């Protein structure tokens, strides 16, 4: 028994060197097989599929919530009743935007359409100016590194010559944006005031219906901000989309489709994260507009009823004395 106790115990099966080497080789083979399918193309396809599933799930949840809410659309007294309508980019949002755009751009051939076309042309010209500036700056840097005075003078002269044209493009773009904001505001304000002064609507809103308490705020400052936001949205969406299309075309022709696909997957993923993070800012903006409207409404009531207020204050002072 003592001899059996002194004998060393056999090594466990998992620590056998031959078996460990076989296990390691199997792991390496499995990793090689998996890495064969983890290419940039497959990763981009998987990201696109996941994004499509996310959009379908979000749309299904939006349909469920809209079915629960029903078809009632209340505007200003939701906060008082405890029911808040959540703002979302859905079909209701697009239908409302389409109805407002028909008011601001009533016909295909009008001044607003001309300014829209001018902004589009200037955005395309500015994109090509940016591309030319990048190429010309690269050539200037190459001339400086290579110490070639002739090329440096040539590309520097090209830069000086092109600067007035580029500044002209920028000024035409600013002119189109400002004029379009003004035209949109004129169209929308005229339509709103026509509806506001029709059939004693202003009297009903001020005395019979208290759902909209700050009509002056909505008809002046909110209309201006809305028109500015629509024009900024048009310019801020069209130019990045054009830039992305041009860069994807250039990169695809140079390095293939895997690089642009991975870049687009990264941009979509980061955009979803940033959209989630920006949600509180949208709620704060809505609250800011509501408080500004209420503040302006209170000031307008004070101006309207100033005689009653001063009479009441003087009576209180006389009673105290």
Structure explained in plain terms:
- Helix content is 83%, strand content 0%.
- With 321 residues, the chain is mostly helical.
- Helix 6 (111-146) runs antiparallel to helix 7 (149-196).
Which bin fits the share of residues in helices?
over 70%
DSSP helix count? 12
Residue fraction in strands: under 5%
What is the 3D shape? extended
Structural class, from secondary structure content?
Answer: mainly alpha
What's the gyration radius in Å? Answer: 33 Å
Which series of helices and strands comes N to C?
Answer: HHHHHHHHHHHH
User: First CA to last CA: what distance?
Assistant: 116 Å
Output mean pLDDT: 76
Query: Biggest β-sheet, characterized?
Result: none
Let me know the number of strands: 0
Poorly predicted sequence stretches spanning 5 or more consecutive residues: 1-6, 10-22, 70-83
Set out the fold topology.
Layout: H1 2-6, H2 17-37, H3 40-69, H4 78-81, H5 91-104, H6 111-146, H7 149-196, H8 201-208, H9 215-255, H10 258-277, H11 279-304, H12 306-320
Summary of the model, kept short:
It contains twelve helices and no strands. The chain has 321 residues and is mainly alpha-helical.
List keywords for this structure.
disordered N terminus, 321 residues
């Amino acid at each position: 028994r003592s001899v059996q106790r002194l004998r060393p115990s056999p090594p466990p099966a998992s620590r056998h060197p031959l078996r460990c080497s076989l296990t390691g080789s199997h792991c390496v083979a499995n990793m090689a097989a998996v890495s064969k399918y983890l290419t940039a193309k497959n990763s981009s396809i998987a990201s696109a599929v996941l994004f499509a599933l996310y959009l379908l799930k979000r749309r299904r949840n939006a349909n469920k919530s809209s079915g629960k809410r029903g078809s009632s659309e209340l505007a200003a007294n939701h906060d008082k009743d405890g029911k808040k309508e959540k703002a979302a980019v859905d079909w209701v949002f697009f239908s409302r935007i389409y109805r407002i755009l028909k008011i601001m751009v009533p016909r295909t051939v009008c001044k607003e359409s001309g300014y829209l076309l001018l902004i589009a042309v200037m955005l395309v010209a500015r994109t090509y100016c940016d591309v030319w500036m990048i190429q010309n700056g690269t050539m200037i840097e190459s001339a400086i590194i290579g110490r070639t005075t002739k090329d440096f003078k040539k590309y520097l002269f090209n830069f000086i010559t092109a600067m007035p044209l580029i500044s002209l493009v920028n000024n035409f773009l600013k002119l189109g944006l400002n004029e379009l904001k003004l035209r949109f505001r004129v169209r929308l304000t005229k339509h709103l005031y026509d509806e506001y002064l029709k059939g004693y609507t202003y009297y009903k809103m001020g005395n019979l219906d208290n759902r909209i308490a700050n009509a002056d705020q909505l008809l002046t400052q909110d209309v201006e901000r809305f028109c500015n936001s629509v024009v900024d949205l048009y310019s801020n969406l069209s130019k990045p989309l054009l830039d992305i299309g041009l860069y994807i075309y250039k990169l695809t022709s140079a390095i293939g489709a895997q690089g642009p696909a991975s870049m687009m997957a990264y941009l979509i993923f980061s955009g979803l994260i940033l959209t989630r993070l920006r949600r509180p800012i949208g709620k704060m903006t809505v609250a800011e507009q509501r408080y500004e409207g209420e503040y302006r409404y209170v000031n307008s009531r004070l101006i309207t009823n100033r005689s009653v207020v001063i009479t009441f204050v003087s009576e209180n002072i006389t009673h105290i004395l």
